[in-house]
Amino acid sequence: MSSRLTTQSTEWIQRDKPFSFSYEGQQVTAFEGDTISSALWANGIKVLGRSFKYHRARGILTLANHDVNALMTDGIDTNIRADVWPVQADMQLTAVNTTGGVIKDRSQFIDKISPLLPVGFYYKAFHTPRRFFPFWEDKIRKAAGLGEVNFNYPRIPKPKQHAHCDVLIIGAGIAGLSAAISVAEQGLSVIIVDENAKAGGSLTYDMATDSVSQLTTLLSAVESYSKIRLITNAYAAGYYADHLVPIVETTGITKVRAKALIVASGAFEQPPVFRNNDLPGVMMGSAAQRLIYRYAVKPFDKGVVVTANDYGYRTALDLLAAGVDVLAVIDMRREGSSSPLVTELKSKQVAVHKASCVYEVIASKQKLGVSEVVICPYDELMAEADTKNKIRLKCDGVAMSAGWAPAAALLYQAGTKMRFDNTVQQFVPAELPEGVFAAGKVNGIFELDQRQLDGQRAAAEALNYLGKSVATVEVKQHQGISPSHAYPVVNHPKGKNFVDFDEDIQVKDFINAAKEGFDNIELMKRFTTVGMGPSQGKHSNMNAIRILARIRDLPVEKIGTTTARPFFHPTPIGHLGGRGFHPHRYTAIHEWHIENGGIMTAAGLWMRPSYYLPAGSQLTAQQAMQQEAMAVRTKAGMIDNSTLGKIEVYGPDAAAFLERVYTGKFAKQKVGQYRIAMLLDEAGVMVDDGLACRLAEDRFYLTTSTTNSAMVYRQLQREVQISGLSVSLANLTGVKAAMTIAGPASADILSQLTTVDLSANAFPTGSVVETKVADVECLLLRVAFVAEQAFEIHLPAAAGLYVWNQLMQAGALFGLMAYGTDAQRLLRLEMGHHLIGHDTDGLTNPFEAHAEPLIAMDKAFFTGQRSLKIIAKKPLNKTLVNFVLDSDFAGDLPNECNLVIDNGDIAGRITSIAYSPYLKRVIGIAFVPPEKRQTGSRFEIRNDAGDLIAATVIQSPTELAKSA
Amino acid sequence: MKLLQCPVNGIRPLSEFSYGGEFRTMPDPDSCTDQQWAAYVHYRSGAPGYKKEWWYHMPSGTWFIAERNTITDKVSRTYLFPKREVAV
Amino acid sequence: MPLRLLKYAISREHPAPRFFRDCVEPKKTYDVVIIGGGGHGLAAAYYLAKDYGITNVAVLEKGYIGGGNTGRNTTIIRSNYLTPEGVKFYDASVKIYEGLSEELDLNLFYSNRGHFTLAHTESAMRTMRWRAEVNKHVGVESYVVGPEEISKACPQLDISCSGQAPILGALYHAPGSVARHDGVAWGYARGADQLGVEIFQNTEVTRIDVKGGKVCGVQTNNGYISTNKVLSAVAGFTPRITQMVDLQTPIVIHPLQACVTEPMKPWLDTILVSGSLHVYVSQSSRGELVMGSSLDPYEMHSTRSSLDFVEGLTSHITDMFPFLSNVKVVRQWAGMADLTPDFAPIMGKTPIEGFYLDAGWGTWGFKATPISGKTMAETIAKDMAPDLIKSFRLSRFEDYELTGEKGAASVGH
């Protein structure tokens, strides 16, 4: 049975593009331009979904993107909003949240037992006895939820666009379009967005005046301005600081930064509340109009209009024109309407009942639609129906026009103070934030010509705000009868008079919630869940406020509103997440690592090789690491250290600056020497360490750890400003490559490429020289971090790979191997060195790490010094020691962070541990109680299995090597 | 995203900045008591209002002071520390 | 269907009484005034009355009860902390939570889901082991698991995180649970009210009077109250209250944001946290994914939402669950989190006699609600903090004795 009307001049469908799709297994025809709901309705299908809680049949309510009971799945996607989603050929749709199909849904029994489910029922039962709760929880969780999520849904990266404009206008109705034209006339740029497929707002469905030609005029004006960008099918998802508004389209998000914002987002039509106002066939007047004028679909065959404003009369005429048998217009207002439309309707044999209400709608047999409406006289002040005088009319549809609620979400989010205006019975802006303006229905302006003017007024204000000088525009505030009814609620002893269709909340739920003490709007919202469904209260919040006001006997403005938060419509995770950038930094030698089997791991932003597994290698990770470490001990190894932070400090106060920032002394440091530079925070906690190389009286070259390089540089920069010293910094971290060649053969290899005398006497540990390696200008240091003999080379990044290759070539005969960070960790452990941030934590002070030699307490000042003076007076709580497991230790190695146990209590923890193939012993670093710090002290480690493993404190593993 | 005025680079999005905490004056470490020093290190004036804060423009490495209302998040002015003119 | 609900079906009048009285005007004097009608303040009132018979108590709430961080948090309850004192404290909280629905006769939907803290790096794995070892030592069921066990509990999780941050393992914490946050506040409010405590909503403290180092009264927008004992349990408003008594604390306020998706049928049974990706997620009993991320990077006393937060969070959640691309976020919000330098709360007495502090919850403090109520009630009743919260004393900062939770945070990721 087709409900498709003959061609409407305003329709959005393309009749030359028909196709079919399926719904709940049934083949259905549609036209390009239909939404899922309009196509189904055109085919006489009116049960579009089941409600969240009671599983009641639901149809079209608004056709304005808050029909959240008509959610579909196509097997790929879920919770598709049928009322606005464009239907596509061959879609295979079913309603979500049903058991056994939308018609036969086996969960509909819940509607019958609804008295057992009072408001907040889930707080009141299922929890005693405690052991049964998991059973009930499982049932409740399965019953809740809407669609099933598809675990195979592909991740589709949605790139984000950025746009800038002078004025962003939300809503392309008459107010928004007029505003856009006024702004563009002054030469400023405009972006105007509308969530509908076409611009025009109510001009596309409310035919009260000559809407079609008005719209044509406006749109051609808009088109004539190149500075207006009109985006349809796009909604403004939220308002964020400094006029940032994400505009959501199916293709992705455009983040619009505007200098000013005009909100002309209109108003949502609100349902009157009466029994069974949710049955399929009962819909908003504006939904009926949208069906007729946008999609050429007859809303129902025979029905009534219930209204509390003059929009209902217009709707009745529209229904008549669409061939609907309109039995009556029921006006809830005591005085009815004085509109000429009343006479027109009466002349067309439509009965008009004033001071009446729809008392209830009688459901058809399977509760799948409307069979009858019951009309009673209505006392609008008392909100009581006189049930002694019932009129019953057989019909299949009801159109409802009880009033409007402003689409003010963005205004609220921007910080607008709203007030309740009794002349329009709605919240209107009272105080707008800077650069934000409102126009049209959202501003409480309802007459069409005044809305146009209001758009121009808002534009003028925005223009003046932006520094133009334009004449202000006068707008007539609303006069006479309010477009919204003050209390469109009809009580019914049997209830099912719904306020919130998302969450199945009826009038009595509010009354009962208030009885239980939830009688302010926020508590009521939380207890009843009104407005917490996917439509976020678009059709329910206003009635909830009115009902609460009446319960409390307070004016509506005393009740206030709940907070509006993003998003205006639910917004896909993929849109918000965008492409998901994961930046990484590669060193100059990265290519070599990859070619040679480097297993790369992130170290902060950098990628570094943990170890190398060349093609064809049969080694395990552990073996590969040990082989690399052994090469360093016995021959030579080389590591890419380019990720170290590298900072040049220069200026007459360079040394004074380092003395102020770092714990050590640098003033008398000789050119050609480096010293360890340890950084503390103000509380005296160890933060970082590196080397400070003095290259000239007024020039130092500093290194920092890889992970802290950005933080240290940033901190030093601030210290430069605070100290006022004459010093400058240059961050060379990315500019320079660095590598360390270590091991007994390292000097022999390196000496092939440099003229520096590398002997320990001529170039001892602690030396640094600016020289050339492989003819490349570089900085050469003799270091002893991973091996007794090692050389660190810092050079321009561009030459990094070249010099690396030259050294590799020179070292080939000596057995030089590249080693990764895993081997480095073992090597430094064999040398007995702790790593800040690995062996220390966010509370470790230098006394606990035996770093006293690095601290010059006798200096005038350094960061952290004053705190150390306080800490020094306190007893030491814990201390870092090197340890070794017994030589006969066998079994699984304890892990880092296994605890040190003393008399059954936690006494410390292992911070590093490894088997050293060179020493053939398990060595490590641990926090132990201070009394255990002496060499030879024994302590116990509890491993994962819970066994206690004995360990001995040693001075340094290097001692073991000597004694071995 | 918020916009912030870097005294050197002009108005830039907040993602380019890093917060450096409240601008605080260090007590004289030599004359202050341990308790005063501990309070300086650990305590903060957490109450809301206009505050002088350190901010850092990351791409250019610029530290500056912003005077910001910590309730409204409005920045009344920004300038380099110590206050000095920037050559254009 | 439980029989308890039958009475609603057969009664003509809704048979449930008010949860708590509609107190309008405070008396002139109370034994204890509690500032803040969130979970913590209400729980403290409840235990003062129940455990110590101190019922002449007023709870003053500037808005509506449970409207602050109690109603904004992501409802995760766990005790897998790093320090023994932290683990013991939160474990005591978990223990009370487990029986709280019965005690308060209100279904709090206390749902034991198990909690995985995912580790994407070797250093995160070390921290997980550290926490597991301390937890085990104190008798809390936490242990390190590998990717296979994570997959078993949550087969939908992409262990490689879209190749961006492969998961190496996790700290599994068996007691990890979620509960209905509003219910906790309402249940304590009802319990306290029934024992005689008076709860005043829309009542804001504007001044606290201290004479000779002792608290003597509070001025409110609803009259003056004299009292010798005041508990501040106001989370994000702590600095405003401590300013009234000239008390210095380390607390700074940063917003903490969260968001929820549309409801969907249950699929995520566990609670997942990723430190590296800055994501925590669970599925509520209504079917929504409740998600949060790290704290906002700078101080602010406001509950505004930011787009950066939700962009970052959604980007990372799709690394973990690529199929969520078209699931929609319905709502985002923020709370004001009160932070301390060592990520542990500040609880107990203060240098001002009769002024007690319950603050520094960092991430909203929901999981500590029962135990903070109980221990603060004891502190007020005996004017002495119980051992369980001694390490959370305010003076630890002057003493350079910060709690060890700071240790993990700096080596965590």
From TrEMBL, chain A:
Classification via InterPro entries: 2Fe-2S-bd_N (IPR042204), BFD-like_2Fe2S-bd_dom_sf (IPR041854), FAD/NAD-bd_sf (IPR036188), FAD/NAD-binding_dom (IPR023753), GcvT/YgfZ/DmdA (IPR028896), GcvT/YgfZ_C (IPR029043), GcvT_C (IPR013977), GCVT_N (IPR006222)
Natural source organism: Methylophaga muralis
Keywords: Aminotransferase, Oxidoreductase, Transferase
Residue stretches making up the SoxA A3 domain: 494-576
Domain FAD/NAD(P)-binding: 166-446
One Pfam family this sequence matches: GCV_T
Gene3D superfamilies xref list: 2Fe-2S iron-sulphur cluster binding domain, sarcosine oxidase, alpha subunit, N-terminal domain, BFD-like [2Fe-2S]-binding domain, FAD/NAD(P)-binding domain, Probable tRNA modification gtpase trme, domain 1
Residue span, Aminomethyltransferase C-terminal domain: 878-957
Lineage, broadest ranks: Bacteria, Pseudomonadati, Pseudomonadota, Gammaproteobacteria, Thiotrichales
Protein name as catalogued: N-methyl glutamate dehydrogenase/oxidoreductase subunit C
GO MF entry, a single one: transaminase activity
Domain of life: Bacteria
Residue intervals of the GCVT N-terminal domain: 589-859
Keyword Transferase: yes
Family: Belongs to the GcvT family.
Automatic annotation (TrEMBL), chain B:
A Pfam family: SoxD
UniProt-recorded Gene Ontology molecular function terms: sarcosine oxidase activity
Database matches in Gene3D superfamilies: Folate-binding superfamily (3.30.2270.10)
Any single GO BP term: tetrahydrofolate metabolic process
Coiled coil stretches, renumbered: none
InterPro entries: SoxD, SoxD_sf
Name of protein: N-methyl glutamate dehydrogenase/oxidoreductase subunit B
UniProt organism field: Methylophaga muralis
From TrEMBL, chain C:
Claim: Oxidoreductase is one of the keywords in the record: yes
Protein name per its UniProtKB record: N-methyl glutamate dehydrogenase/oxidoreductase subunit A
Rhodanese domain span: 32-76
Single GO MF annotation: oxidoreductase activity
InterPro entries xref list: FAD-dep_OxRdtase, FAD/NAD-bd_sf, Rhodanese-like_dom
The entry's keywords: Oxidoreductase
SUPFAM superfamilies: FAD-linked reductases, C-terminal domain, FAD/NAD(P)-binding domain
Superkingdom assignment: Bacteria
One of the record's GO cellular component terms: cytoplasm
Taxonomic placement: Bacteria, Pseudomonadati, Pseudomonadota, Gammaproteobacteria, Thiotrichales
